[in-house]
Amino acid sequence: MTPAKTASSRSHRPAPFHPDEALQVVRRRTTLVPKVALVLGSGVGVLAEGVAWEATLPTEEIPGLPRSTVPGHSGRLLFGRWAGRSVVVAQGRAHLYEGYSAEEVTRVVRLFAALGARSLVLTNAAGGISSRMTPGTLMLVEDQLNLQWQAPGRPGQGSPGDPRAAQGMGPSGPTNPRGLASRPVYSPDLLAKATRAAVNAGVHVERGILGVTLGPSYETPAEVAMLERMGADAVCMSTAAEVAAANEIGLPVACISCVTNWAAGKNPAYTARLKHDDVTTGVAAVAPALRSVIERLILALA
Question: Which domain covers residue 257, as residue numbers?
């Protein structure tokens, strides 16, 4: 989940993105070649605190990367060793509801691949829909129900030297107007490794389907009821485009959702309006368990 109120208006759009240029900026700060890339979503960035990072780089200093305007998203890339393995961590993410395109919010995924990452682990905060997804549950995502209706353009298909090619645009519009070449897939291998990581950590996890809405407002009870009928076990406002982009470039991806609260209408005893602070508080409660799972998953992947 993400906050219902955000500074969605921005003074400028990000510059055109060229992975080689972004890579050069990063390489001026670190030569680390990460085996695993991680995106820490709403409130989850706290997991990166206490790690002795080799380098920290604000995303605004990397040409073409969008800036997050959402509380709980620090907007930094962290480079170093976590659980003794080389990783790169995005401490926070940009969202479609901030006014960015699907291509823009997934640029960091392409940068991860350029850096040499071989696996991508996503996290997010989510509202529980299924009765199994009580607040405090960690859900390993098996598939997604994407109601954002947006997918990242396939980069680099315009004419040579055309700056629109780096944004998934050709001479007359999007290079893939019908969408992706294949259905977004969460890696079965990474899912199995995440399951084993949870067992080794002694942490109970559930598996489920992630519903994804555009936001920025939280879902209404009617919308949650619709998502439940469509098969969603939990709901968030991110992740779907990142999974699609990772699939397009052949980067295996897994996702762990932190269920921080009941989705609207799923807990009649809770009638107060959901606030972003409720989400971050929920993440803090589950953070130790999530850290244990992530650290063991990193060991399995790197």
Answer: 19-158+182-301
